[in-house]
Structure prediction request, 178 residues.
Amino acid sequence: MGERATDKTGEKNDIENGLIKMLVKISNGLCAYGDESNNPELIEKSGTSAGRMRKMKDADLATFAKARVQLVEANLTELADFGITAEDLTKTNLLIEQFESINAEITSKLKSRAGASKDVEAMVDALEGLVENRLDKYAEMLSEENSSFYNGYAATRNVYNYGKRYEKTGEPEQQPGS
Prediction:
């Protein structure tokens, strides 16, 4: 396998994997207890595969995990025979907290990046305004004194935006049969 990521995404994946591992253990214990106690509702509420959990959105996984914790809390003494302990419950709650915390941190960073790109757009707009409103006027003032400078400047400014499209001027083309 490739190298493991070392940034927040790698840490998030480690926490998520640990959480899913605990949820599988809890779900298996709940299913076994539901089967032995002839409780189909508990079996239905607890049965989900690791693959399905991995496909869940982060918020849905956290909600799912909290619901499993509530099921365990309601049946903790009975689940001891199925390998589910208060220690497992504590570990799962800690993983849920870490998972939500790192997701909030990642979301916050993404929002700040979006804000930064808007700031860059505002700066570009301000610079374009500066060039159009001031620099062009200064170059025009110098055109009488140094025409070669102005001609070079004007040629450079005309190549400013390659992607800008201009509509054709003149009479519209007539359609055949009109």
Residues 48 and 96 are 17 Å apart (CA to CA).
